[in-house]
Amino acid sequence: MRVKGGILSVELSEACNLTPGSGSEHSDLEEVPCLCLTVSDTGHGMDAAVIERIFDPYFTTKATGEGTGLGLSVAQGIIKSHGGKITVSSEPGKGTTFYVFLPRFEEMASPEVPTVETVPTGSERILFVDDEQVLADLGKEILESLGYSVTAKTGSLEALQAFSGEPYSFDLIITDMTMPEITGRELAKEIMAIRTNIPIILCTGFSDQINPKQAKEAGIRELVIKPYTVASLAKTIRRVLEQG
Description:
244 residues; alpha/beta; Heat Shock Protein 90; Rossmann fold; 2 domains; 5-stranded parallel beta sheet; 9 strands
């Protein structure tokens, strides 16, 4: 649609999970009054392989630098937190339709007093590694807002070179798992060969690549599954650093 244009349609209707395209996965919403938000386009559509991964964190069909692959993953998380579900129907050349089902409530809920979560801060020196420039910049910005001194690198070999040149200039390494040169797990191994006691946090969007037990066996202090919140990352950082 970006190149040739098209039609984007948005519709809100009263429905349960019987809306065409919703699928049997919404059977738990059958007895619950629902609203269905339908968003359709007349774009090029998606094949089954793309649809299967469309809600995976950091999965994107866009060119490098055009997207982070977090939009649908975050949207799915928000919808689930409200007791709803999202599904998609698409075919190549026939456009795409997303169905968002949300429970309908007749009465207004009593407003909750928001609780302010305390986010721990620090002043240590962190080497942050992610091959996506957007995510590297975002990680640096977030960590610096928490008080840390941050060096961000977008290449695993570049990060290894920076560390090997000054191995005692960093108090913590935070690295992505999936990178084109060497993986975060391999980077951690190379770094610990230089300085065995350096704490390392490994981040991944795919839990089938490595599990917490494998991470511990590799000498990695913590395994963080993406997407994560600022608060959860901040707490993990303090926990790792305070372990010594």
